[in-house]
Every structure is written in C-alpha cells, then in structure tokens.
Amino acid sequence: IHGVHYLRVSRNVYWNCMGHTIFVEDAAETKNLIEYNVVAGTKPSHSLLNTDSTPGCFWITHPNNIFVGNRAAGSTNYGYWMDYQETAIGPSFNPNIRPTRAKLGEFRNNVAHSVGTYGLRIFHGHEPPVMAYYEDHLSYKCGKNGIMGGTLGLVTFRNITVASNAQHGLEFERIESAGKDENKIDGAVFV
C-alpha cells in the first residue's frame, strides 16, 4: 500500500511470501481498511527493502489505518510490526506528517502466532494526541514476546491475551505519561 488512502484489503490469504506481506510503505498512507486477511509463512528477502530481511506478515508505518480480524502466522520474525516513523519517508517524504504522534485508526480482533520474534511490535513508539486502543488481540507461541512496545504515550491495551511466548507476554521500553490513567492494560490474560 504505497501512496494510497481509503483502500480496502479484505478476505485474502497470503502464503509463503518473501519480505513484508501486507505493508503500508511510506508512512503517509492513512484510512486504509485491512480486514479479515490471513498471512502465513512469511520469509526473509535480501533483495527488497532492508527491513524485508526481518519481515512482518503486516508491516505498518502509519497508525491511522484500520486493522480488524486479521491473522498472522509463521513469519520468521513479526506478526504485526507497527514501524511508526518520525516523518513520512520515501517518495512521500513530508516532515509535517508525524506518524509516531498520529492517532490510531483501529487495531482490533487481530491474532499473531508462531512467529520468530514478536506477535505485535510497536517500534519507535506511539504517542498519539488521543487515547489509542489496541484491543481484542491474541499473541501466542512467539519466539520472544507477545507484545513489545517502544515509547508509548496515550495507549491502552484492552482485552488482550498473550500465551506461551518464549520470553515475555508484554514488554515496553518506555512509558511517557503526564498523568493518571494515561497508559493502561485493561482486561489482560497472561499464560
């Protein structure tokens, strides 16, 4: 999804792909609906983007997109790699577009399992202007953590389950909080 807004990617199955499978590339793309897709068996590529050598079933550079009901399985590295950028990058470069500080569209009812590192990784971090709800998420049998976050601001993880992950269920690098109830884990199950 490159330079596109309002695209619908729905009810597809992706198997045995090299490099990131479904991805938002330039960190300028917003309001795309990515729903009910199954991505499995994602493998590294050493001839595409540098990040494709550690691929995600889903590689997302801007949070203002909608992810509902997707399944990520069997990637060598990531299920959902939310690689939010400081600015838009590539051909869409724009220093005024600030994904790490943008609101979240939706991230709801997604599953990641049997991936090499993280089920859900919010890389660099997410410090949105309003509360972002990552909700109804399940990560299990991941090679490191079920959920890993960088610097997080107004973020709530609601109704999440992390189970049988090799290292941790949840791990965060840094929490930025100016007041009470700005960062929450609400309704979590750890196995």
Protein architecture, described:
- The protein has about 190 residues and is mainly beta.
- Helices cover about 0% and strands about 45% of the residues.
- It has no helices and 20 strands.
- The N and C termini lie far apart (about 35 Å).
Strand proportion, as a percent range, falls in 35-45%
Mean pLDDT level: 95
Determine the structural class based on helices, strands and strand pairing: mainly beta
- Shape descriptor reads globular
In short:
The protein has 191 residues and is mostly beta strands. Helix content is 0%, strand content 43%.
Question: Can you give keywords for this protein?
Answer:
mainly beta, seven-stranded parallel β-sheet
How are the SSEs ordered, and which strands pair?
Elements: E1 8-10, E2 13-15, E3 22-24, E4 33-35, E5 38-40, E6 56-60, E7 66-68, E8 71-73, E9 78-83, E10 106-108, E11 111-113, E12 118-126, E13 132-135, E14 138-140, E15 145-152, E16 155-158, E17 161-163, E18 168-175, E19 183-186, E20 189-190
Parallel strand pairs: 1-4, 2-5, 3-6, 4-7, 5-8, 6-9, 7-10, 8-11, 9-12, 10-13, 11-14, 12-15, 13-16, 14-17, 15-18, 16-19, 17-20
